[in-house]
Design a protein that fits this description.
It contains two helices and six strands. With about 140 residues, the protein is an alpha+beta fold. A hairpin with a 2-residue loop joins strand 4 and strand 5.
Length: about 140
């Protein structure tokens, strides 16, 4: 499926691209909201390499670096986490902890719905293999 990593640090995937006139870009990961940047002490950006197996594979660029250096550093990978809100929830008391849990469940539901939509498009538009149809059934149950 087509993906793009924009200059704002957001990884987007093209949903329903096999159906004419129905394609739309959906964010899969906002790298500005990663837990590793939450404290505000780190300044880093990411050089995209691949999107595979529900992960974003990239090279971490430290400080103000704009390009990977030689020798190439190791690849890092991040799980998809669809940005549901712009402000991360704080877990100070019980009410905020419950809100954080709700936010995690909402994100999980939206992420699984997007992945299911991609799989449905694949199976519906191509001669799907038995493995792909089985994967679609598994994702529908999830």
């Amino acid at each position: 499926d087509p993906c793009i990593y924009d200059s704002d640090g957001v990884l987007l995937i093209l949903l329903h691209w096999r159906t004419p006139g129905q394609a739309k870009w959906v964010p899969l990961l906002d790298t500005k909201q990663l837990d590793r940047l939450a404290g505000g002490r780190k300044e880093e950006s990411y050089w995209p390499i691949a999107v595979a197996q529900d992960k974003f594979h990239c090279i971490i660029l430290k400080g103000g670096d704009k390009y990977p250096y030689f020798p190439r550093p190791l690849l890092s990978e991040f799980d998809f986490r669809i940005p549901i809100s712009s402000a991360p929830a704080k877990e100070n008391d019980d009410e905020e902890a419950a809100g954080s849990e709700t936010q995690k469940l909402e994100e999980s539901f939206v992420r699984h719905s997007v992945m299911l939509g991609l799989m449905e498009d694949l199976v519906g538009a191509t001669n799907a293999t038995h493995t792909q149809r089985t994967e679609l059934s598994r994702r529908e149950l999830e």
